[in-house]
Write a structure and sequence with these properties.
alpha/beta, six-stranded mixed sheet, single chain, Rossmann fold, globular
Length: about 525
């Protein structure tokens, strides 16, 4: 008998069917990957297994866990199962963790509630569990709060809470989506080792086939609430049948046709020996002030028409460098100039020539305003901004340039998908024709198909607008596809620079080699499948 058996599961939210005849089984010690785009039903399946569905949800079908149907359990019975027998690792650890409790208290809480451990015994076991997931007290004291940890460390704390009681089933919902490649590799290796050591089963939810290539025993491909194809991992990669599976695979290995650009030798942006440090909090009033250096003696330039990539792990200084270039963060030493003019002390006429596209488009928009107003926000930087019909025509034309409809200008931002919001963010960045655009992790949180479409859009706009841009990402495959030259950053310093292809094919620095080795690899495309963006 399977540990988990899902039989003809259907879920409706009001009149909308979100899961349709979903069936699969899972054995002890097995890893099943649920893969598909946003809205395919992956997370809804996970919530159904945990019985954490909204009140309006209507469920039909069976979810047999250890031969007992979870859909018939009372909330009191389910509370005993959640955390002890079935645990879940959520996509966003900062949201999943309690910001006012220490990491020790949050791991201990599970042991106290389910096992009746004393606070002292629970704390000792919590320390052992945190050490097991790579957070020994010598590295991360148990008295730390979530906001004092990096993204990868927070994800390890969430995993520690989930595995504290050695559950039979672990559900990991996009556990590595926003992490850099080395941290992602460490988290995936940790999850795989926990499965092997404890013989628990795991459901890994992700939109990235490269992540599960060497991780999962079986893969289920979901589309529109249905499982359209399911097979052992190696079988599916070599003999995929469903058109949607093929389109996902093609999008995962997608490369764009970046137009050739004759780069002007004159520097557009010049960063010269800049440094930036932050003051650390003092533990007591009389302690000497200490500083952490985020950027140390960094120099590089971007020529007119050049597409430059910037890669590195979280905490390497990429974001600090970006804020400095945008004039949002002061620097202690060095200069940053755009067309020979100082950016740090710039007026609007200089700053309007640099625009940025952020990682989270929804968070960068005011939800109370319509798209027409959101897109033309940079107009306040112009001395004579267009207005009336002229402004409407410009907005309509630009929305069409980024693959949207001119009628979309009358909608609100919540009415769009993640990929459409990113297109609107790009439109906003281009509305005043800047000389430099900074893409800050602009595609890291997108589905593989949407990511492929956005990368094609960037390549198209590079040809039409003659874009110069700085593309910041932890995804080396994306950087290879959309940049001419690349910088590798570590601990606030540029450790390697050169043509993107040369660096990624023949790295010279050990850190660059480490990044490349850590990146998940997609198996070779099966015969008859080409790497293109699915429609």
């Amino acid at each position: 008998m399977s540990l988990l058996y899902v039989d003809q599961l259907n879920i409706k939210l009001g009149p909308v069917s979100v899961l349709k005849d979903v069936s699969f089984s899972l054995q002890q010690g097995e890893i099943l990957a649920l893969t598909g785009e946003s809205g395919s039903g992956k997370s809804m399946t996970a919530l159904a297994l945990m019985q954490l569905l909204p009140d309006i949800a209507k469920t039909d079908g069976r979810i047999l866990f250890q031969r007992e149907d979870l859909t018939t359990k009372t909330e009191k019975e389910l509370c005993k199962i959640r955390g002890s027998d079935i645990s879940m690792v959520f996509q966003e650890p900062m949201t999943a963790l309690n910001p006012v409790k220490t990491i020790s208290a949050q791991v201990s809480e599970t042991l106290i509630l389910h096992k009746g451990e004393t606070p002292r015994a629970a704390r000792e076991k919590a320390q052992s569990i945190l050490h097991k997931v790579g957070l020994p007290p010598s590295v991360v004291p148990m008295g730390r709060f979530p906001h004092e940890l990096s993204g990868g460390q927070r994800q390890r704390v969430v995993i520690a809470i989930a595995v504290a009681l050695t559950p039979s089933l672990l559900i990991a919902d996009e556990p590595t989506t926003a992490l850099d490649v080395t941290t992602q590799a460490q988290i995936l290796a940790l999850l795989k080792s926990l499965v092997k050591e404890t013989n628990m089963a795991m459901i890994l939810i992700t939109h990235d086939l490269a992540v599960v290539a060497n991780m999962a025993d079986n893969i289920a491909i979901m589309q529109h609430g249905k499982i359209v194809e399911m097979a052992p991992t190696q079988t599916l990669f070599s003999q995929m049948h469903h058109p949607y599976t093929k389109s996902l695979f093609a999008a995962s290995g997608h490369t764009v046709n970046l137009p050739y650009k004759a780069v002007n030798a004159d520097n557009l942006l010049k960063v010269t020996h800049i440094s930036r440090q932050y003051r650390l909090p003092r533990k007591h009033p009389f302690e000497a002030t200490k500083y952490a250096r985020a950027v140390s003696d960094v120099s590089f330039s971007i020529d007119h028409g050049e597409r430059l990539g910037l890669v590195g792990e979280s905490g390497c200084g990429k974001s600090t460098l970006t804020r400095a270039i945008l004039g949002l963060d002061p620097i202690e030493k060095g200069t940053i100039t755009l067309n020979g003019r100082d950016v740090q002390n710039a007026k609007a006429d200089v700053r309007r020539d640099i625009q940025v596209v952020f990682q989270d488009p929804y968070g960068s928009f005011n939800p109370r305003h319509k798209v027409s107003r959101l897109v033309c926000e940079p107009y306040h930087l112009l001395p004579n901004a267009p207005s009336g019909r002229v402004a409407d025509d410009k907005i309509s034309r630009l929305l069409e340039d980024v693959g949207l409809s001119s009628t979309d200008k009358d909608k609100y931002i919540h009415e769009f998908s993640g990929g459409q919001r990113q297109r609107i963010a790009i439109a906003r960045a281009l509305i005043i024709r800047p000389k430099l655009v900074i893409f800050d992790e602009a595609v890291s949180a997108l589905d593989v198909t949407v990511r492929a479409q956005i990368l094609d859009l960037i390549a198209k706009l590079a040809a039409e607008y003659g874009l110069s841009y700085l593309f910041i990402s932890h995804d080396l495959a994306v950087v290879r596809s959309v940049t001419d030259r690349c910088l590798v950053m570590r601990d606030g310093q540029i450790v390697e620079t050169g043509r993107t292809k040369d660096i990624l094919d023949n790295p010279t620095h050990d850190y660059t080699k480490k990044l490349i080795n850590a990146a998940p690899k997609l198996p070779a495309l099966p015969k008859g499948i080409t790497a293109h963006a699915p429609s």
